[in-house]
């Protein structure tokens, strides 16, 4: 999981294409101000999950000659890598795995996981070397030459042990890799990916997983048998000497027994390492964020600074790097234990682009005053920005059940429902659509008229005052029978469509 930059300027430029011709000036002004105010707080991002799968071509042999040929090709490839040689025709090399890539892609589509396009993959590879540096995505997603992409200097500053310094043409940043150490025997509810999303600063959580061989020569079954006999002997010796076995010995023996049963039943076991990666512009920022991660998780899981392993962990966590013969920080658990981390589980509101309408509460009752926590504290403690574009709702969002642009605003009395609806109406008035606001109390017209006539707003917000002056107001006399039902949208439809809409409304209210 990594914090994917929202690239606000590009998104608002795209949003600006939908501005009304007579609202271009005010729409562009508030779009620019929104970007400026949000970027003033720091990087605007959303959590994004990347799943990398090693696709290895399956070798099919039908004769002894095929076996010799495969051995020769494997030996030739190993010798070439030994002398620093690389494959020249990468397109042909990758095309050999196309059938297996398509098979994996079709399998993952059922989980709503889509493959990355080329530019996305290039950017992710480049991002590993420019963490914490200000950049534009469209300028960094075309680095195809490996040496240019990895041109960043990665060094260990002598005066700041336990950190890495990245130096690139974009600037300088610092980062720290915090590997996961001791874990509880039962990893239920260790939702670390959710924890990483709730942090108030950008952070990554990277995990390398390998499925070791279970049985046979080199399989973990032999090692588990040896460990089982070893702990059994230790336990027996303690009992013979009238000594109580330690809690640690009993726990470890139980875990080994559990893993041994899984291996005997052919159930998979995984080896893995995982690191939190925090970064920033200054050493103090990185150290403070590192301390936050360690302190908030110390009651659940142990996170280490790994001061002497920073460079090795940096290269080990790069995209495409295998776990290999990793010894330090490696864990062996069941697949279910890894599933408790809640990979790809997100809780976010809003859309990828649109007008900024607020933030998602991440504190809940954990604020300084519980349910009575001040609104300002809840706002600035959250890094989950909510964007909404009412026009996009009618365009057919992938996975949505309906295309109609209907939005229900619900909540407790006095918590801002009317304010939100008014804000959405003002934003929609910038767009190239017709908007109708039904105001039974007539408050909007009264306040807008008062604002238009105020010299202060005329001087400091001329664009907004001019925009309000363009609005048309219609007052309906409720005592006039001719006005009965004029606000009912069904009267604007044909007889058949009106009947269908009425039936749909009843079905939705009482399914």
TrEMBL record:
Classification via SUPFAM superfamilies: P-loop containing nucleoside triphosphate hydrolases
Domain of life of the source: Bacteria
Cited InterPro entries: P-loop_NTPase (IPR027417)
Keyword terms of this UniProt record: ATP-binding, Nucleotide-binding
Molecular function terms from GO: ATP binding
Pfam families: AAA_10 (PF12846)
Protein name: ATP-binding protein
Organism lineage: Bacteria, Bacillati, Bacillota, Bacilli, Lactobacillales
